[in-house]
Amino acid sequence: MGLHIYKNKELLAEGLAGWIVGNMTHVLKAQKRYSFVLSGGHTPKQLYHILSAKYKRAVDWNRVDFFWGDERYVPFTDDRNNARMAYECLLTPLGIPSENIFVMPTDPTPQEAALQYEITLKKYFGESAARFDLVLLGMGADGHTLSLFPGSDLIDYTGQEWVKDTVNQKEHLPRITLMPSLINASENVLFCISGAEKAAPAYQVLKGSYNPSVYPSQLIRPESGAMWFMDLDAAEKL
Ligand code: 6PG
Description:
This protein is of the alpha/beta class. The chain has six helices and nine strands. The protein is globular and about 45 Å long. The model has no long low-confidence stretch (mean pLDDT 97). The structure holds 6-phosphogluconic acid (6PG). Residues 39-43, 70, 72, 82, 138-140, 144-146 line the site of 6-phosphogluconic acid.
């Protein structure tokens, strides 16, 4: 587990952007494409702005394929939609071709959308093992990540699906989410977390006893360990 702590959220976004661009540059010397799973929520917005404004010429972005870790079940036109935010802050400013962007559908039923996205991923990776180059995750103040919420029936789910539908009980909103087994098979998995409200759950996730039904972020255990990019406020209790 790599812990990267920055003085404030601005420096956190700058530091993480530098790490991501460095990794993309290194990986793209050895392979043709780079698969990048984006996170939703508010935290990554500043990171996306920096990547699109400061690093537009630093990366051959046409060789990067974009996916999502989860999606709120609202239309793309709804400003809660994670893909919409990424388009606004990152994908449109970088001019990413639509064929390199794999949005989670929010028009069929949630169950159908999860099935469709799994088919999309299996077409991209083949039926065998999917291995994203980078998964960017956030964490909620309740310790959730992706759309894996405390008490969810997905916490102990043992099925083989890569993508599942669920419901955020607080928002009464259906969600689509990648499953931990798929995330944990990825090359690089990192959390980007800022703010004092994340300090207590971050401590429990990283230092507390293993209790994923309360702290679902503990389900994220990739082989090489997850990296944690945090500001001082979020890392205060570590
Ligand atoms: C979402 C995200 C979710 C997010 C956390 C943190 O759709 O909300 O996928 O897992 O990463 O809720 O969100 P903030 O960055 O807004 O605190």
